[in-house]
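Hi support team,

I submitted a single chain yesterday and got back a structure, but I'm not sure I'm reading the token output correctly. Could someone confirm the output below corresponds to the sequence I sent? I've pasted both exactly as they appear in my results page.

Thanks,
R.
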Amino acid sequence: MADLARLSGRRFLVLGRAGMDLYADPPGTRTEDAAAFVACLGGSAANIAAALVRQGASADLLGCVSDDAVGRFCLKQLDRFGIGRQHVRTAGGGARSSLAVVETRIEDHQSVIYRNGAADLALRTEDLGSVDFGACSALVVTGTALAAEPSRAAALRALELAREAGAVRVLDIDYRPYGWPSLAEAAEVCGRAAALCDIVVGNDAEFALLAGATGDGLDAARALAAGPAAICVYKMGERGAVTLAGGREIRTGVYPARALKPTGAGDAFLGGFLAALADGAAIADAVLRGSGAAAIVVGRVGCAPAMPGRDELDAFLGSHPAPPETR
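Hi R., thanks for writing in. Yes, this is the structure output for that exact sequence:
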């Protein structure tokens, strides 16, 4: 288990995908009725990196983008957000960066994600050769990167190398059934990744995945926190979260939000949570900062561009009492 004090270095490496999100415009418009779209940086790893940077941390992306206009859009957006891309490779051979067509609406929300020949899944173990894991405070891996080869092997090897270098390892389980050949394969691979990590974050279905088809998600989180992981955050949506660490179970509620869309909350939460831990916040306070960031993001268009800055999040938390379930 890594020393979590290493997070104070505030240098994060996030492994996974960057893509283009197209939001039907104006907000509230259904995709099939849209005459215009707004383009934003998207992809779970890029969103988490943007959240970290907005909170004053340093974040680099480790991944691949396509050798086309969409891939170049992603690279320019990474530069715009201040996300390091020295470990982002351009993948040829017909690989395509992911494209999400999304609606800024809650009722009957539609998100259509194009992942054919996904460029981010072209990440290879050879791409890790230039990475100095010893210089990283933490490696963050999103579960999407584990769904297929060669990215799967690269992500697992990256976790091993980060462990050898003493860096904190973080897994956002981020299970998306459409990306996996089978539930059993997802359970086995995500379980291997979780066993290599110090911090594991997921919802009930995602932790239940680690326990097998008939397993209980909270019990799986408890088992991880009693073994290889120092912290497990078991998210329960509108019912808040249970954070397991050091033999304690910390229950926190959520901040009320006037949501425009359901997307981006998980990425905002993780970025806010990790940045707060890096600043030395207590675990319960870090969870609340993540929850506050999530409440802000769902009320805005986009994911990466919706991530709040540190001062903005401070102001939000200062004007909103802690949720009553926090204890």
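A quick pointer for reading it: The chain has a mean pLDDT of 95. Let us know if anything else looks off.

Best,
Support desk
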